Amino acid sequence: MMWKGNPNVWVYITVALGILAYCVAEMNLALALVALPIWAMSWPMAQSARGKSLPKMLLVALVLAATVQVGAKVLSAPGELVIAFSRYLVWLHLIKLYEKMTPRDRGQLLTMSVFLALGACLTSNTLWLGLVLLIYTPTLLWTIMIHQLYAGREQVEESRAAFKPATRRAVVDDGALSPRLGRHFKAIFGLAGLVCALVATVVFIITPRHIGAGMNMGGFGDANIGSVTGFNDEVWLGGEGILRESATRVLELEILNERGESAIDELGGSVLLRGMALDEYRDGQWRRSERAASRRDSQNATPDQPIPISQRRGDAPLYTLNITYRNKQSGAIFTLFRPIEITISGYARLTRGLDDQILELDASGRISYTIRSQLDAELPEQQGMRIPSQPAQFRDGRIRELTDRVLADEGLSRDPELEYTEDDERIARAIERYLQSNFMYTIEMTPPRQGEDPIEMFLFRSQVGHCEYFASAMAAMCRSVGIDARVITGYVATEYDDFDEVFIVRESDAHAWIEARVRENHWLTFDPSPPDQLALIMERKSGFLATLRALYEAAENFWVRTIVSYDEDNRAAIMGETPEALQTVSERFNFEQIASSPRRTGVWLLTALGAGAGAFAVTAVMGFGVVRLARAVVAWRRRRAQRRTEEEADPTLAARRRQAAFFDELQRALEKAGFTRPAWRPPLGHVESLREQDGKLADSAADLVHLYYANRYGGRLLSPEELERAETLLDSVRGRLRALDHPGANGRSGGDRGAAIAQR
Asked: Other C-beta atoms within 10 Å of 463: how many?
């Protein structure tokens, strides 16, 4: 079991855990499959007793190659600085392992490992990374302690070898020098780990969350959970294969009615969350038109400050949506149509489309927001009038003919040249029913033939498809008879968590439907996908694997809610509101506002430098005081332990120390009179030097010292008679000192006299 105390082995293990943590953070399986085998081969090739280091020139060449590679990466993608630097550290770790470890090498590897772990934390905050770090952190602490324990011993061996090369031996591999670590060392490790955990927990809880908000860190300022949502801001029809389903959580949604109660029953158990409106179709692609994208307004969002979007209109119900976005990567904000007001948890810039009411936020990572929406309400007149009619499309051809037949079966018809009719909502409902009743929903995609339009393929040949085909077909059929329609992409929330009373939205819940303008200022939502077939496909699987997934999701949800989602509101609930001074600091360190003007940037830099210098000075003073106090406490504990050990070895020691108090009184009396004993001079030699000043003083003091020697070095208790004699002699010394002419004989002061005696 010698490996338990081998620092090289523990550094080797710590390096592997650090590399694994980063690979998990980046979700980079390829990097793990390359790096970990190289790590594994380094021990038998270089670190074992028979292993040899690679040639120095080869190691230098590998480091230079890694440096050039990371430099090129930084220049080509400045926003991925952390990823480039972290990968560089991975390669440096691996290269360094192919050189025999010295104490200095171990220290360098441990330092790089810490920075690699920090890079992992800046890259991701998934539960998997948290689990790896839960193993990595105590391993790192243990390794550092082992390294420090052996580094001093190895330095002694190196010094010994410099004088006697023949006696040199390997410290780490020597069983005599690598014993099984004792319980005291393990207790220190446990105590150090507990203290570090407590300090980290306290700092995590009390640190204000708004300081530094808005800082542009190249995409890693807000650590993402690492998943990619199934939402698309464009629709491409005509693919082939089977759509991949992913159960990764995207967001949690709580929806309340105007009474503050859950609105799940009112909404029929599902909610359509719109993210993007696509109003332009060309060559099998739906996208947002340039006009809609350019007609927008923007404003800065600050934490917990409501931003009005539009006015409430009519008596349509008003709902409040509380949304926690796990990993926001697109700009879209998901909401019910039509949004009235939004409140965002952090600093960001909000953009609102004037034509389509699309909301976008230039923030990524974990985002929480509250939005109030009026379901399918008419737009206020000034907003509705801004939206021009869409260009005529699908007015001729097979799609128009099919639509006319569908409407005729319902006893309806429409002139496409008319802007609005009183039957437009009924017409849209008829088209919706037709698609739901006559077409099949599938996740298996059929590609169109050469030159065939994907919508026509769906309507007239395959008659099966996924939600994007259903939405595209309905939008095309509505447009063919003059009803403005646009494809909406977003999510359909159907999975309800009864315990937390929230909808759980996953990547596989990505969905498409349409909005049609049935009156001048009134857009309505229609979902032509067959509801029963859609529900069957989205139904959550059961069984053993599903149970395991549910357990993992419960753990992940706990991790996200308690760690990842810990924000200023949670901190304030525990610690109270942030003091005004810290709120001012928070405002000063809003990087988006700072970067808005060169003057603000310059002022902020000067302020930051001043604050940093002041904080450094205060921290240095406090650190110096803490170190001095710690050293004093350690010295006191050491003296106390030494005294306890001595007293256990000699039962009379405590009593003899109490008896020797007369010697302390003697030294104090001499010091007061200016006869301070130098530390290097023995007590008897010092009192003999007093004989030139006063022989009787020297005689009495010498007798006291002899009694002290008998007690201290003779190891015996003084008799009552000897103690009484010591008191008499001490009184005599005090009397002779008072009798001396102060400031002293020959005109010297007491201090000068003591100095003269010391020189002799």
From this structure: 14
- Say which residue, 545 or 178, is predicted with more confidence: 545
Report CA dihedral (539, 542, 546, 548) to the nearest 10 degrees: 150
Whole-angstrom Cα distance, residue 115 to residue 126?
A: 18
Q: What is the pLDDT of residues 698-729, one digit of tens each?
A: 999 999 999 999 988 888 899 999 999 999 99
Number of H helices, E strands in the chain: 25, 21
Residue 209, pLDDT > 70, answer: no
Q: What percent of the chain has pLDDT over 90?
A: 36
In whole angstroms, give the CA distance from residue 99 to residue 92: 11
User: Dihedral (C-alpha) 552, 555, 556, 561: value to the nearest 10 degrees?
Assistant: 160
Which is nearest to 538 in space by CA: 492, 503, 498? Answer: 492
Select the more confidently predicted residue: 589 or 536: 536
- Please give the mean pLDDT across all residues of the chain: 81
333 touches 359 (CB < 8 A): yes
User: What one-character-per-residue DSSP string does 292-316 give?
Assistant: HHHSEEEEEE-TT--EE-S---TT-
CA–CA dist 31, 25 (Å, integer) = 11
CA-wise closest residue to 9 among 58, 42, 54, 55: 42
Q: For residue 604, what are the CA distances in angstroms to 315, 579, 618?
A: 49, 21, 21
Residues in a beta bridge with 522:
519
599 pLDDT more than 90: no
Closest CA relative to residue 478, chosen from 357, 390, 381, 410 = 390
Domain segments of the chain as ranges: 2-197, 235-538, 655-759
The radius of gyration computed from the CA coordinates of the chain, to the nearest angstrom, equals 40
Give the separation between CA 708 and CA 722, rounded to whole angstroms: 10
DSSP string, 595-618: TT-HHHHHHHHHHHHHHHHHHHHH
- Cα–Cα distance for residue pair 661/522, rounded to 1 Å: 100
Q: What is the pLDDT of residue 278?
A: 95
* Residue 756 binned pLDDT confidence (cut-offs 50, 70, 90): very low
What Cα–Cα distance (Å) separates residue 724 from each residue in 667, 698, 701, 707, 708? 18, 19, 15, 11, 13
Minimum mean pLDDT among 151-160, 571-580, 666-675: which range? Answer: 571-580
Here the tokens at position 212 are: 């530094």
| Helix 467-480 with 424-438: angle, nearest 10 deg | 140
533 burial level (CB within 10 Å; 0-12, 13-18, 19+) = middle
CA distance 709 to 656: 11
Please tell me the distance from the alpha carbon of residue 64 to that of residue 112, in angstroms, as a whole number: 17
Residues 233-269: tens digit of each pLDDT:
899 998 876 566 677 788 889 999 999 998 888 888 8
pTM of full prediction above 0.70: no
Tens of pLDDT, residues 651-694 = 888 888 888 899 999 999 999 888 888 888 899 999 888 888 88
Tokens, residue 365: 């990572």
One DSSP character per residue, 124-159 reads B--HHHHHHHHHHHHHHHHHHHHHHHHHHHHHHHHH
Residues 6+ apart with CB under 8 A from 603: none
Which residue intervals of 43-182 are DSSP H helices? 56-76, 81-96, 103-123, 127-163
Structure tokens given for 588: 């000063």
Q: How far apart are CA 291 and CA 310, in angstroms?
A: 20
Task: Look up residue 87 and give its two tokens.
Answer: 């990968």
Structure tokens at 499: 């315990």
